[in-house]
Batch of 3 targets.
Target 1
Amino acid sequence: MLSKSTKLKITVLLLGFAILLLLMCGSLIFGYANTNLKIAYDAFTSFDGSNEHIIIHNVRLPRALIGAVVGASLAIAGAIMQALTKNPLASPSVFGINAGAGFFIVVAVSLFYVDSLQAYTWIAFAGAATTAFVVYFIGSFGREGLTPMKLTLAGAAMAALFSSLTQGLLVVNESALDQVLFWLAGSVQGRKMESLLSVLPYVAPAIILSMILSQKINVLTMGEDVAKGLGQRTGFVKLTAALIVIVLGGGSVAVAGPIAFIGIVIPHFARFLVGNDYRWIIPYCAVLGGALLVFADILARFIVMPEEVPVGVMTALIGTPFFVYIARRGFGQK
């Protein structure tokens, strides 16, 4: 733990928030269209209808905001899942929640021709909830009951199953391929502000509730028997935390597709900075998760310019080495 005093933790958190704001400003400026800070400032203070101002308003501002919200949501969801399951690899992507939500949306698009943003949101929630229940149920089988390894294997199996089913549907229904292929790779490119506004009424309260619940999560991580001995209603806390994960994971998939590794890497980095106190981990995850996804989105614009790489590819490139390290350390390999 690097930040030991409360004052230092607040200072580092504010510094992280400042970095997030700078990255969001960079997201408004950098890209294929030639813009700068003055043009971006003029786009909001004296909009003239030029191509540059339209791009900043209609393209770059939504993707900057979506990147920050989705990154924060995935990181918080990962932190809560790791706390509840005591599994260092727990995250919406590893446990198949992203893949399940994505599969449900692909089914809705390819078979039922759904094209409503509000419908995508509720369908993603349903997919996330179904996957979470199935993974928990499968991971609980056996004499030892629920274990981190069994949860990881169950999540990986469900992720592979839903990914295979998704690809199969797209092969059968080629007309839906163009509509969802880029989205399935995980991307904030081309997303409209309406996409964010469709999930924000659910995601924002879930983020706030996660911070309110953080102290109870601290108690729960001490062990269920200890938590019950201290008078905590552990069933209620677990159910509330699970609902938060479903809303944050499903909402993120509905807006940006299944983006991996944010939910694994950021919670570990937050614990490295502030220790195991979830009163600090969750706000740190919100800031650092948003910053990482916005940063990855900026990088994605320059790798194969003038084309863009889906931001999900960038987060995979950034997160894979961390995933390997965490997996080796978390399961006791040398």
Note: Residues 6-92+186-330 form a domain with the ABC transporter involved in vitamin B12 uptake, BtuC fold (CATH 1.10.3470.10).
Target 2
Amino acid sequence: MGVVLDVTVRENTGTGNAREARRNGQVPGVIYGGDEDSVAVAVKMNEVLKALNSGDFLGSMIELSHDGKNQKVFTKDVQFHPVTDFPVHVDFYRVTNKTLIDVEVSVNFVGEETSPGLKEGGTLNVVRYSIEVKCPAGDIPDSIEADVSKLEIGDAIHISDITLPKGAKPTITDRDFTIATIIASRAAVEEDEETEDVEAGDVPATEQTEDTDADEG
């Protein structure tokens, strides 16, 4: 387990109590979920900031410690002050290693250097930079790999082409949604259009004028 936070239980709830916690250098929060009642807690601001900077806090399973007892939770949400950008509230969801949760996982694209479409000057058009999956809280993947090494211009990679980590399933199940496509670059499209114009037999306006003059003579 990476992040462990010491929490204190707030006896009272409400806006006033939350403000008092913030004045005391703490971030108010709530623990909910499971078969237990919600519990209002507070965490030291510097500990929350340290956890945020670690990159293993928001959207991750962590542990909360209170009176020597540890509780595994999933950091469901963090609210930030609109001006200072400091955290002002945290929602923790009780979990076990096997609890199924919905979480956004970033997509890591591989094989770009060998993709025929990209080699020909195409562009990787990313439709989804992350995918929401349902997976055990103890096995949240760091990222999901999308291999584009065989894609030609005009090809696409869909969720059915992705090998998801064991135990993970996409939350969208009613369609084979697109992750990314290989599209022709704007320069290539314009070049093709110019080529089509020439092949169509278009004659510059100056040449048309000269032909007309010759006929009149």
Note: The domain at 101-192 is CATH 2.170.120.20 (RNA Polymerase Alpha Subunit; Chain A, domain 2).
Target 3
Amino acid sequence: MNTLLIIMTIQGCLGAFDTLYHHEFTERLPWKPQAAQELWIHGVRNFFYAVIFFSLGWLSWGGWLSCLFAAMLLGEIGLTLWDFVIEDRTRKLPASERITHTILAINYGIILALLAPEMMRWSALPTGFHVVFHDIWSWVMSIFALGVLAWALFDYSRSKRFKVVESPPVLHLEVPRQRILITGGTGLIGRRLGQALINDGHDITILTRDKAKAAQFSGRVTLIDRLEDLRTVDIIVNLAGESLSDGFWTRAKKQAMYDSRLKLTQALADWIAVAKEKPRHLINASAVGYYGHSEILEFDESSSGGKPDLASDLCRQWENCAGQVASYGVKVSYLRLGLVMALEGGALAQMLFPSEFGIGGPMGHGRQWMSWIHIYDACGLIAHIINARIDGPVNATAPQPLRHKDFIRLLGRTMHRPAILPLPGFALKMGLGEMAETILLRGQKVVPKRALETGYLFRYPTLDLAFSQIFHGLI
């Protein structure tokens, strides 16, 4: 019996890792409307596991009750298979999650093999529940039982909060049926923008290294994995680039950050140079990091910038690379993006895990500025740039930036959670190095002067309005 309880302990630890690391932290399932059914399955399955853990620690199911216990074990298998089907339909699992699931399945098979003789013994007992005690292992099983029961209730309740499914913003370009290339089309903005333009009746081409991931688009779309396959287009929206806020900035990471932007943008410039029919407009992503950092200055598109850092250098090189196509008669716009607010990715998504568990709080001193934009406005501003034929820099930020401590306070209030546990700057620097210094602990106050001057009306000019839309019906 001790061998069985050891294997169950391993199963419990693997399950906790899978739940916390994959479901909560990396995949953020509780914040994806399409994951509602998967969360419901997790809730029911965890309830089964709670009964299994507690029973193995303290009870023998005598007589015909042993058959009921066996049915529950088989029910867990059925739920797991159903879960696999739902996962494959709704998301692409990372390799680490698939490996973890495989180990869990193998381990569960071992548990069933070890349980078989034990359940034969149970069936010979008088019908009823018989109390047993396995020393320390009974208490270990109790801990796991309480943990998975709590998570069963947690997942079940969160599966019910999805009252609305996030949809792409409604965009209307003045010129109908335009041919538009989007690079980075499977990214945070690219997914929403691409689907919105498809819905508006345009011919969309997505340049992607992962065509399977791009299959999420519904409607008429062309997928290519190399520029040589690109036909004539009217507009190029270049959103591709390695994430700056994802992980430690090693030498290889920094190189990838530069290469993913500069090499692709140069390839686009080379393609435009030889194209017989050139696009009329290139909208090239950049970021508010272009301005460097400052706690006191306010930046608009005419500002020279604050203190330089790696992010500002990267943005300037990126914009310079894109700007060369202007010599071919192509209009060039630089979309200097702030922090994009959306549940499925970006800065806000990274804050959801600690905030939901009440351990959110300001990073560092909290005085750093956060210039942000709702994802609908990010897409809407791209459409506005196309319609208004705007060239040059355009700050893609909401009109009201705010300090990080105020941002966190409003997030906590919206989520009905405390947001009072500060994360010291030195701890962030020790854990994440230069990335924390540049991205998390510094900021800039950026205002969308050109967007407002050219008549763009922000749907979500304030953070409370943005959060009302993002979290409406979800909490």
Note: The chain has two domains: 2-159, 179-471.
